[in-house]
Amino acid sequence: MKNNKLRLAILAIAIVLMAASSGSAQILPKVTLGFDQAKTPQDAAVTLEILFLITILTLAPSILIMMTSFTRIVIVLSFLRKALGTTTEPPNQVIVGLSLFLTLFIMMPVLTQINDKALQPYLAEQIDYKVALKEAMSPLRLFMLKQVEEKDIALFVRISKMEIPRTVDDLPNTVIIPAFIISELKKAFIIGFLLYIPFLVIDMVVASLLMSMGMMMLPPILISLPFKLILFVLVDGWHLIVQQVVTSFA
């Protein structure tokens, strides 16, 4: 038996050495990045386009969070976790991941319009980056205007001391985006408040029962947590929460 184990160990070491030796013989590609003087206006334009794309990639997380449905979804799910009383379950990675996929699901029509009207024509060199940016912002503006409240837009119009716009098209993005953000925060907090009510009732009932039984030293959260989990599972809570959050953007 010992001889067989020794032979297997020697064979495994030999296989690892052969793989390492064969891997060292492979030719890997070399990536270089160089700078040279722009000799034509086209070269300068390409350089500016690259810098513009790098800037967009840098701001992509902020755009994803602030100009889509991500803000409302992640705040609602965070309120749900606190209402249940589970401090780390589900973990942050799960909440953020679910929020991202729900955001992708909700924003799919907008992303499709951006791809058809801005990205594909730009890649086909039918429009320049300025027109592509304008065409990409148009579906996002329409989405945000459907969700924003009029008083929030009026607030930023009044603060900026700009002329009262005659139409929606006259509203600048610097007014629509912050108005959309505070509208999303307000709606998320309202949904979070409604989520707290049934779980708060359970906590109050459990705390009253413990006090009546003279068990004041026992934390009510230890007793109420299983009942809240059972209630959440019996009513199919995840299904209801996701359904209400998604339909709230209709």
UniProtKB/TrEMBL annotation:
Protein family according to the UniProt entry: Belongs to the FliP/MopC/SpaP family.
Residue ranges of the TM segments: 49-80, 188-210, 222-241
Protein task: Plays a role in the flagellum-specific transport system.
Pfam annotation, one family: FliP
Organism: Candidatus Raymondbacteria bacterium RIFOXYD12_FULL_49_13
Protein name, as recorded: Flagellar biosynthetic protein FliP
Superkingdom per UniProt: Bacteria
Compartment list: Cell membrane; Bacterial flagellum basal body
Membrane topology note: Multi-pass membrane protein
PROSITE patterns: FLIP_2
Range of residues in the leader sequence: 1-25
Keyword Disulfide bond attached: no
Any one Gene Ontology cellular component term annotated for this protein: bacterial-type flagellum basal body
Origin organism lineage: Bacteria, Raymondiibacteriota
Protein keywords: Bacterial flagellum, Bacterial flagellum biogenesis, Bacterial flagellum protein export, Cell membrane, Cell projection, Cilium, Flagellum, Membrane, Protein transport, Signal, Transmembrane, Transmembrane helix, Transport
A single GO BP: bacterial-type flagellum organization
Chief localisation class: membrane
